[in-house]
């Protein structure tokens, strides 16, 4: 396991209210989880699978370089200067400036649509 695991785990945990909440939902001892966060210890294969499932990523993705992992889980750049190279961000900048801070709406949503391949059924997607 690479040194990126602890950094990526911290980033994934930042999407939750607290580390304690993550530990409760994972049923992992807080002291042990703190060792994972600090890089002092590495989770067993079983716990690594549980952590990956909880955050919605594969085991190996937790070891990606932090820049790549943050793009994978949808973390936003913290300053406009970091976003300036992205043409899509530039396209939406006037809308973003008008709307203000929309970070409270970032998260996971269920999307419902009619399934075209199986008429009469509803397709549910996580977005």
Question: Can you offer a commentary on this structure?
Answer:
The protein has 127 residues and is mainly alpha-helical. It has two domains: 4-73, Orthogonal Bundle (434 Repressor (Amino-terminal Domain)), CATH 1.10.260.40; 77-127, no CATH class. It is 50% helix and 8% strand. The chain has seven helices and two strands; from the N terminus they run αααααααββ. The longest helix is centred in the C-terminal third of the chain and has 13 residues, at 87-99. The radius of gyration is 18 Å and the shape is globular. The relative contact order is 0.11.
CATH fold title of the largest domain: 434 Repressor (Amino-terminal Domain)
Annotation, overall tally of beta strands? 2
Radius of gyration: 18 Å
Strand portion: 5-15%
| Secondary-structure element order, N to C | HHHHHHHEE
Ordered list of secondary-structure elements with their pairings:
Layout: H1 4-13, H2 19-26, H3 30-38, H4 45-55, H5 66-73, H6 80-83, H7 87-99, E1 110-114, E2 122-126
Antiparallel strand pairs: 1-2
Quick recap:
With 127 residues, this protein is mostly helical. The protein is 50% helix and 8% strand. Residues 76-83 have low confidence and may be disordered.
């Amino acid at each position: 396991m690479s040194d990126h695991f602890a950094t990526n785990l911290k980033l994934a945990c930042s999407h939750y209210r607290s580390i304690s909440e993550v530990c409760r939902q994972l049923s992992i001892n807080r002291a042990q989880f703190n060792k994972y966060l600090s890089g002092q210890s590495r989770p067993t294969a079983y716990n690594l699978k549980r952590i990956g499932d909880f955050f919605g990523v594969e085991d190996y993705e937790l070891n990606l370089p932090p820049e790549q992992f943050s793009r994978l889980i949808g973390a936003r750049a913290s300053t406009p200067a970091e976003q300036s190279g992205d043409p899509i961000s530039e396209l939406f900048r006037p809308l973003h400036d008008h709307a203000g801070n929309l970070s409270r709406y970032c998260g996971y949503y269920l999307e419902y649509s009619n399934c075209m391949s199986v008429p009469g059924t509803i397709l549910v997607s996580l977005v």
